């Protein structure tokens, strides 16, 4: 049960957050680069976490300004992959994207050993299945109704596992297991995410979602209750936005547009932002000198977080 819960927890992290409106609960958004608001007039926490990753940003906050600048200079060298002395947009974009993946990767790593029972640094479908469902599928667990529920969850997991397992060997590497747990981050997982949504909503299994099924997924009328406004709004949305070809149903392409919105690339925006703010000679690429001149925007240190640290120290005393 603990394992099942931790899996649900991981998925919840990847999805939006808690208390989302009913019509949003199906939407798989890619995680933003930071939980902080991006408002540079109130501090650079967003930029720090985007540029360094959440964990690393915390480490930098403990450094003196000198140490912080030293480490930043080394990072600049790593970002400049072609070693031409400039960081351009694609180099910075790649770097930021990779930090973000690492945060997700850290989540996966935290739970890895729960599944990798034989510690071969791979998770086979059998291992995953035994760990997650073993008890529920065994003889001793004889609640028939629940057994059916677990069987259908198992079938769904198996399909998702196969989609994530790109080389089809039945064994997930860390990268493949990451796609299994965070499908919204991977293009090749789109179809399976759409299929899972379809399975849930398309009650009569005709391969498309009617208005009734769409609303039924988010709202069950109570006796004597008049239909809430938000349900009427959702009905309108169905016709106006979701049903693009206006045939009265959502096919899988329309479901995909709804649950996997091709949205802003946060890493792309952040790379543009950092270059824009740093590029004093306006040549669209930045040098180590330009980065270091704006070091407090890229990374933190005890100095940039001085006020915050002061209160923390006070509390600890
Ligand atoms: C940016 O640098 C990379 C090499 O790291 C290079 O492949 C790419 O073409 C450059 N982009 C531009 C717009 O100059
Ligand atoms: C999974 O459980 C079955 C039945 O208990 C067992 O035969 C099998 O060896 C287990 N597989 C793994 C990989 O743990």
From TrEMBL:
Superkingdom classification of source: Eukaryota
Residues in the signal sequence: 1-19
Keyword Signal among record annotations: yes
Domain EF-hand as annotated: residue spans: 67-102, 103-138, 152-187, 189-224
CC per GO annotation: endoplasmic reticulum
Keyword vocabulary terms for this entry: Calcium, Endoplasmic reticulum, Metal-binding, Repeat, Signal
Entry's Gene Ontology molecular function annotations: calcium ion binding
Full protein name: Reticulocalbin-3 isoform X1
